[in-house]
Write the structure tokens for this entry.
Amino acid sequence: NFGNAFKNLYKGILTYVPNAPILSVDSKAKSVATPVGTFRGGVVNVIPNHRAGQIVTDASLNNDPTGRWAVVNPLNYASTIHPDIHILGDSQGTGLPKSGHMANSQAKVCADAIIRSFNGEDPDPNPVTASACFSPITSKTASWLTASYRYDSASGTMKRVDASFAEAPKPTSDGMQQMFQWANNIFADSFG
């Protein structure tokens, strides 16, 4: 639905250019040069490649092949470099979606594993995390998608549970109300 909004609803109003390497940015001309052309606009939003926070780089914990993420054990989110440091959310390199909902879910797996370690126990061998994403599409409608992920011991990674994937058929006003309910719930769960 998010992609459809750019292709249909905002066609001719917004230009979305994903995955285009940026050659240069001219703030006075409000233009961005890429290998596929130069784009101009009244407002130009340049979004750099996503990567772990600077604290991860400063601590030399960004050890995935791209140097952008911290590789962690998905059973406890412990760094593979420093096992006493736990990294989750946008900085971890498990391949899971980068979202607040996912970070909240990872935090629960991590906390459970730490408590188990204090008691001399191993982490849960089958953790499950969940992702929910709400996107406002207009000022009155929103879309959503959800999925769950389960640890796969054969690969040592979290794999999406295909039957758990669901997506709104279209943006709706009910979706907007659900987005605010979800936000209130996730904020209360995360911050108390």
